[in-house]
Write the C-alpha cells for this entry.
Amino acid sequence: MQRLVGDRGVTLRPHAKTHKSIAVGRMQLAAGAVGLTVGTVGEAEVFARAGVEDLFLAYPVWASDEKSVRLRDVAARARLRIGVDSVIGARRLASELGPVEVVIEVDSGEHRTGAHARDVLEIASAATDAGLQVVGVFTHGGHSYDAPDLVAAAADDEVSHLAAAFDVLREGGFDPSIASAGSTPTAILSARSPVTEERPGTYVFGDRQQAALGGIRAEDVALFVAATVVGNGEGRLVLDCGAKTMSKDRMPWIEGFGALPAYPGLAIAGLYDYHAVVPVPPGTDAPAIGEVVAVIPNHACPVVNLADRITVVLDGRVVDEWTVDARGRNA
Ligand code: PLP
C-alpha cells in the first residue's frame, strides 16, 4: 500500500483501528507512512504514549470535559490533528483545547458524518474565529462497501467532494494543504489530485470482505482466527470461535460469517457467543474433531479488537507475538 499510494505522489496515513498494535504501527511508519490515523481518544493516547509523533484523530470528536483533558495530554506528546464537521463542534474544541489543527470532514456519499462541501467555509470560518488552525479536508468513502460494483464510483466521489471542498475553502481565502481520502477499497483509486493523503486501515491484514470487493487478493489475506473443532456430525461442524471471537459482522453480498480456506465450500452459517456452526454438505471434505483450523473473518477490525494478542506465523512457525495495545480503547 505504501508503494502503490507513494507512486501516485500521495502520502499514506494508515488507520490504526485495524491492528490497534504499536508493533504494527511502527512497521507502517518505518515503511514510509507520514503518521497514523486513529478513531478514538483512547487509540490516540496509546500511540502517543508509544512515541508516535504524528496523529490524526479522524473523527468529529465532541470535546467533553473528560475527553478534553485526555486530548490535551495527547497534544502535548504528539502533533495532533482532529476532525470537525460542525460549527458547534469546532467552537467546543477551540474552547477546550486552544489552537489545535483541525481537518474538516466532508460527506462524499456515505452519509455518516461530514459536512456538505458548500458548508465547509462556514465551519472553517467559525473554527478560525475560535482560534483553531484549519489545515484541510477529509472524507471516508465508506459507501465503497455497499457492493463490489460501487467501489470505483465511491473513489470518484471522494475525489470530487474533496476537490469541491478545497475550491470552496480557497475561494473563501483559506489555503488548505491536506485533502485526505480513505477506505481500503478506494485507497488506490482515489490517490489522485487534489487528494494528498490516503487513510486505509483494513488493507494491513485484509479479510473476506476486502477480497470480495477486490481491494486485496484472497491469497494475501493475512489474519486468521485459529479455531478448534469441538463437534462434528449430522451435516455440521462446531468450532470454538463464536461471536465473542469473530464478531457478527456480515455483508449482504457475502455468505456466512467466516470461511475455512483449507476446506473449500465450508463457511460459518451460525454464530452463538462461543460456538460457530458450519454446515457440511454431503461429500464435502471436513476437519476432524480436535483439529485446529484457520478461519478468515468477514471483517478484520472487530476481530482484532476482541483479542489480546496476534500470533505471527511464518512458514508454519510462530515467529512473534504482537500485543493489541489499544484493544477496547473505543472511546
Ligand atoms: N478513515 C475513517 C474516518 C474511517 O472511518 C475508516 C474506516 O472505518 C478508515 C479511514 C479506513 O477505512 P478501511 O476500514 O476501509 O480501511
